[in-house]
Design brief:
The chain is α+β, with helices and mostly antiparallel strands. 26% of the residues lie in helices and 9% in strands. It has two domains: 20-141, no CATH class; 147-178, no CATH class. Strand 2 (51-53) and strand 3 (58-60) form a beta hairpin. It is globular and about 55 Å long. It binds heme C (HEC). Residues 164-166, 168-170, 176, 178 line the site of heme C.
Length: 178
């Protein structure tokens, strides 16, 4: 899947919406019911908790599929508990995807979802710090011209900072911390 054509770290909104589920559903290894679930995901979506891969087998996790639009991973420097599902920090999710979704060779253990994958030697964990540094270096890009109403945004900014009092809690560079 080429990521060079778009802003690295961006979510799958307007411009880049590959049908991941439909592509996986083409696999002859899947039974018809599983194929139908993948097929139902729709453009730009992915269900990261539908299944995991332990290096040999596809393990079933959530059996009602809940596909989501992939969230952006830029602009997260300074944000605590930064994965949108709040399952854990970025490196938790990197390990989960690297091992459990992409088949990387390493460990992933999470009793909350009853998932225990162990593959040795561990080629994933030593790479997590550098991957995190890279992800935290991704800055939120300026929105493209004409993609929003600047006057309305300025009115909202004044509301946020003044009358509505949002900025009494939401402060700092990302406006996301308390
Ligand atoms: C008293 C402190 C406080 C005030 C005032 C406040 N917020 Fe929040 N806001 C929070 C906290 C804490 C969270 C995180 C809640 C969570 O993640 O469960 C939050 C979360 C949010 C989120 C979700 C952000 C994300 O990335 O998921 C949005 C959007 C938001 N607030 C908007 C507003 C707006 C708009 C106002 C003003 C009308 C406002 N907040 C006023 C404390 C506040």
């Amino acid at each position: 899947m080429a990521i060079s054509a778009r802003q690295q770290g961006a979510s799958d909104h307007a411009t880049y919406r590959p049908e991941r589920g439909a592509i996986v559903a083409l696999s002859p290894a899947l039974d018809p019911a599983t194929r139908a679930e993948f097929d139902a995901w729709g453009p730009g979506k992915y269900d990261p908790r539908h299944h995991a891969f332990d290096g040999t087998n596809l393990l079933s996790l959530n059996r009602r599929s809940l596909p989501i639009v992939l969230p952006p991973i830029y602009g997260l420097k300074g944000v605590g508990f930064e994965t949108f599902s709040a399952d854990g920090p970025i490196s938790y999710w990197n390990a989960y995807v690297g091992v459990g979704q992409m088949g990387g060779q390493g460990p992933f253990h999470d009793p909350r979802i009853d998932l225990f994958i162990t593959q040795t030697p561990d080629l994933v964990t030593p790479k997590l710090p550098a991957l995190l540094d890279y992800q935290l270096s991704l800055r939120t890009p300026e929105p493209s011209k004409g993609s929003f109403d600047r006057q309305a945004a300025n009115r909202g900014k004044r509301l946020f900072r003044n009358q509505a009092g949002c900025a009494t809690c939401h402060q700092g560079r990302t406006s996301r911390t308390c």
